[in-house]
Hints:
Elements: H1 7-20, E1 43-44, E2 51-52, E3 60-64, H2 65-71, E4 86-90, E5 98-102, E6 118-122, E7 125-126, E8 140-147, E9 161-167, E10 175-183, E11 187-195, E12 204-215, E13 220-221, E14 233-244, E15 250-263, E16 268-273, H3 275-280, E17 301-302, E18 309-325, E19 328-347, E20 355-359, E21 372-377, E22 381-402, E23 406-440, E24 443-474, E25 479-498, E26 503-523, E27 526-537, E28 540-541, E29 549-550, E30 553-566, E31 571-593, E32 596-618, E33 624-637, E34 641-644, E35 649-652, E36 665-677, E37 681-692, H4 707-710, E38 715-728, E39 733-741, E40 749-754, E41 760-765, E42 770-778
Parallel strand pairs: 6-9, 13-17
Antiparallel strand pairs: 1-2, 3-8, 4-5, 6-7, 8-9, 10-11, 10-42, 11-12, 12-14, 14-15, 15-18, 16-41, 18-19, 19-22, 20-21, 22-23, 23-24, 24-25, 25-26, 26-27, 27-30, 28-29, 30-31, 31-32, 32-33, 33-36, 34-35, 36-37, 37-38, 38-39, 39-42, 40-41
Amino acid sequence: MKIVLKYGALAGASMAAIMWSGTAVAQDGAEAAQPTGGLQEIVVTAQKRAENLQKTPLAVSAMTAETLEARGISDVADISAAAPNLTTSITPSSTTNITVQIRGIGESDPVLTADSPVGIYVDGVVIGRTAGAVFDLVDLERVEVLRGPQGTLYGRNTTGGAVNFISAKPAKEFKGSQTFSYGNLDYMVSRTSIDTGEIGNSGLMFKLSYAHKQRDGYANDINQPDKRDPGAYNTDAFRIAARFDNGGPVRVDYAFDYNDTKSYAVPFQLAFVRPDIAAYFANSQALGGSPLEYSRDRIKNLNLDQGRLTDKVRGHTLTVEADLTDTLTLRSLTGLRKWKNTVGNTDLDGNDGLLGMTISPAYLAPKPDFQTTGVKEITLFSAQNRRSQKQFSQELNLIGKIGDNVDFVLGGFYFKEKVRENNPQQFSIIVPTPAPVPLGNGLSTDYAAIPLASNLAYRHSSESVAAFGQVTYRATDRLSLTGGMRYTEDRKHLDQTAGVAVRDLRETFRQFNWAASVDYKFTDDILGYVRVATGYKSGGFNPRSVGGSFKPEKITSYEAGLKTELLDRRLRLNLTAFHSIYKDMQVSQFTADSNGASSITVNAGKAKYTGVEAEILANPVDGLTLNASFGYTDRKFKSFWVYDPAEGRDVNAADEAHFNYSASTTANAGIQYDTEIANVGKLMARVDWTYRSRIYFHPLDRFNPFNQGMSDGPVGRFDARIALSDIDLGPTRATVALWGKNITNRDYLYSGIDFGALGFAGVVFAEPRTYGVDVKFDF
């Protein structure tokens, strides 16, 4: 199916609809300061049923639509401030690959057979891959972040937690909005949302949403125009949602979403090189090539050879709810999603146009044969890629009550996925020459490059079935007991045609998980709970690794929490403490050698996580809202067994291992002020600060010698927004907002790669200061 969206035509149609409409519809409220004082109730579905956030005995955080708009959040990459002990990072060679870490648990390897232990869901449908997971989500209603293992209700691969994006449902009344944004880096956005309202008395209603986003890159590539600089993108996204609800026992929701993104990978710059590599390239400029540039500080002008990335995502979601009785509801949730990705060329040495002496790969043979092949352009590392993924999921829930004291959820789940990847790589190994080699014009070299190539090609399929249930028994008006269990069976198949091996592997994994909790209402506004839960991340295969399959990893978590609403609902304070034990922990260790980029996935051993989390939301006086969160996790490897080729044996590296891509400490604080300006509108001003402590990008320094120097942080970032809303323009109401992100222009990293034996390492800097203006019309 080919879909072409015309930005200007749709924007013009949207403005026509605005002028045609004669009714202004107020925006839905959220958790910001309210005229009558006090904090608004937030409803979540973390336990498969609608519940007050403060009455849910789980470590769950939620952001409402108004907060998402105030903070400029539209996809998973922006949610670091949504909850304590949560961090996100964009990985190299992409703009859409994400690593999400909760309580120090996550997965950074974008290979399509690696499951993330943090589940990402859109309207209850699991997103099978974190590769390609950064796609624009239009018309978000809220985001829920569940921390800690969710193995009972959410199933496998949620040992760290789950993030659920919930889209707005079609409204019963006609309404619409049109937003235009412009910012530095030629950032331009058009967002359109139209609700048809109920059509007659049919119970049918529709919501049509469209977004166009484009921006130049945020690092300068001297070989490309601004619109092709690193980090540039051009995205079209739309969503069509339909709802049937005539007040009867059956409700149906269907949605189709589509994202088409053309982009250029985030800027990868060389940060460290071995002395021999620096010496080898010292002649590059004299030979007519480019000089070697590398720095751990941000390089202003990069010399890259990057190709275009394309990502196409489409999804269907069908939810059917039927009230069988007054206390029993059957829910069916069906999802079908597809993703296709192409990478024209990814530059992972940060330098284009390097020249140097080359020799034949015969030098690597058991009997080395030194054959010079002349001065050529040298690529330290680059790659292309073609990837695709498609998945189908079906979940059934039976949600009900028995009498006044028992609530239950019973369910079944089925998931099927197929992926494929074809990943050619080009790279060079720098070696000493037996004797100095003359290059002409009085130049000579003691080193030579061996150009090499490899390929990674495979197909992988997975199939998962599960049955689960959870029961809550209200022993008294204040005391409740909850227990749940889940049985899962996973079947996986790897058909690898190129890489470190050619193989056909199959494995089946089975797991039983359980959870139990007790919660007690000390008062109507203070809830305490204790919870014990287990989780399971499926085993599988790593096509980059010489070894076969790796086993599942398992977690047991002990948690205690306190949820409070105090001072006549002007202060909300939630506290959590946890202790988690990980067994058979899966660890991907990145390496690079004469076989190209590879990784070793092992069940390294045991780790313990102990931490605390605090969230505060306050409305001390009308118009003023304060929020803050803090998370700390003390993480320790009890054992970390890896094979060290230098020693020729397995070694326990627990004392030196790092928890990669995750921070031990996170914090967030925000202040928002709302006030009415007579005969003008409503003024809102907001400032947010987000902090994370130091992160490492690889677990072991012994395999990645530049790992310490690449590590990043601690870092704090400020964002701000000021908006004037509810401006009366007759047929419409308007909002004008000025915003800035990273307003202090702090330099920090998204990610990094240490190529180990190849002798160099590079980093990806996050976006510098960005700013812009939004103009929104509600009708």
